[in-house]
Design a protein that fits this description.
Elements: H1 6-35, H2 42-64, H3 68-93, E1 104-105, E2 108-109, H4 110-129, H5 148-174, E3 193-199, E4 205-211, H6 212-249
Antiparallel strand pairs: 1-2, 3-4
Helix pairs in contact: 1-2, 1-4, 1-5, 1-6, 2-3, 2-4, 2-5, 3-4, 5-6
Length: about 250
């Protein structure tokens, strides 16, 4: 099925790009916690929750149509998250909080990546709200449209849901029902390695060793895609069945 207009189609893919960015940033936090033994921090949980809020606004746009109120939800989440991330930045720069070496990803701490992500969210919402052709009150979203963009959206929704479950587990495990620590310290890389054996001709074998948590992260992504494919097929079949039944009851 084609999109209602080229502008709406482009807007959908831009919202999918937002989901990709959120998953990328949260992946860094998850790797910190499970791959390097870093307990979640109080402000870090606020930042991650705000990132999920940004993604939720994009998901509303994708599933239920492009609406200004969905972008408003993104702006509110970005406002809260940027405040928390900026506070981490200021407190670390002033020496109030210490910067663990395992918090640095590609040369920058994760809170800097979060500030950048929220800044892009602000700018993106401003541009989209100034682009009236991408806002159509008659757009019903992707729920009833079997398109590649729906499959990708479902994949990111399942991926983020898994991250949320892992976050809840970490919070309950490390903090219980009390406030998480403001300045946790990592315990170092977790020495878990998965070794895969590859059989050649005869009895010759070769092995590949991959760090355990990278394997798990890849598994989450692949598992999310497979689950999304089943859900996407079910939604499409359900719509086709409903259409067939409606046609049989009210023939024209």
């Amino acid at each position: 099925m084609v999109e209602p207009t080229p502008a709406i189609g482009m807007a959908r893919w831009l919202n999918i790009l937002v989901l990709f960015a959120v998953v990328a940033v949260i992946s860094g936090s998850i790797v910190q916690e499970f791959g390097y033994g870093m307990a979640p921090s109080a402000l870090g949980i606020v930042v991650r929750s705000a990132l999920v809020g940004v993604a939720f606004g994009a998901i509303l746009n994708l599933f239920f149509g492009m609406r200004p109120q969905h972008y408003a939800f993104v702006l509110f989440s970005a406002l809260v998250g940027s405040g928390a991330a900026a506070s981490l930045w200021v407190q670390t720069s002033s020496g109030t909080l210490s910067l663990d070496p395992n918090e640095i990803v590609f040369g920058h701490p994760l809170y800097e990546w979060a500030v950048g992500a929220f800044a892009v969210a602000f700018l993106g919402c401003a541009i989209m709200l100034c682009w009236p052709r991408s806002l159509d009150p008659t757009d019903v979203g992707l729920i009833g449209r079997k398109t590649p963009s729906r499959l990708i959206t479902l994949t990111f929704v399942i991926w983020l849901s898994t991250y949320m479950a892992l976050t809840i587990y970490q919070v309950l495990r490390n903090c219980g029902v009390t406030m998480c620590p403001a300045d946790p310290i990592s315990t170092g890389p977790q020495n878990i390695v998965f070794t895969f054996s590859l059989y050649r001709s005869g009895d010759e074998t070769a092995s590949i060793s991959i760090p355990g948590f990278i394997t798990v992260m890849l598994g989450i992504g692949v598992g999310s895609l497979i689950t999304a494919a089943f859900v996407n097929h079910f939604l499409g079949s359900e719509k086709s069945t409903a259409t067939t039944e409606s046609s049989s009851v009210n023939p024209t």
